[in-house]
Amino acid sequence: MLEIRQVNIDDRNAVIQLWHDCNLVVPWNDPQKDFQRKLDDGADLFLVGELDGCIVASVMGGYEGHRGWANYLAISPDHQHRGFAKSMMAELENQLKALGCPKINLLVRNTNIDVIEFYQSLGYTVDASVSLGKRLIPDN
Ligand SMILES: CC(C)(COP(=O)(O)OP(=O)(O)OC[C@H]1O[C@@H](n2cnc3c(N)ncnc32)[C@H](O)[C@@H]1OP(=O)(O)O)[C@@H](O)C(=O)NCCC(=O)NCCS
Q1: Is any atom of ligand 1 closer than 6 Å to the C-beta of 48?
Q2: Nearest to 73 by CA among 51, 49, 101
Q3: Can you list the domains of the chain with their CATH numbers?
């Protein structure tokens, strides 16, 4: 049974290892800084899933008063295809709804067809919009 709870500072190494194991760490994002920035900003929607005391799942949720967001959804490769990602997203969606958040958005690289299909299986649809970004603080 996956136990879903809010992240805390002691989870740092396990969560960052999970992100590495799931190939979510990219050269332009320092995972230590990403973890710390989120904790500094408020970690209430940053969730981890534990199995027998080990962290096997994460999702870094957020809400800025208009849209909810999900980043760093990760399930340990040894524990995929057991419905854990579905449970993590359902918990995040419930917490967002409780805050009055009307819609959740997330970004997936358009080459990542498997993950797009995974989100579609949860009821997500591809929005007709283009994602624009501007780096404000380089990590490296
Ligand atoms: C994508 C990921 C989070 C899915 O985790 P998971 O725990 O294996 O997914 P679940 O078992 O909860 O699957 C939920 C549903 O999605 C479907 N699904 C899962 N993986 C899928 C895939 N690769 N393609 C299509 N559908 C998929 C399942 O059929 C399941 O539906 P069902 O239970 O009704 O059959 C996991 O593979 C992962 O961590 N990948 C690496 C990190 C990553 O890419 N994260 C997303 C960043 S945007």
Answers
A1: no
A2: 49
A3: 3-121 (3.40.630.30)
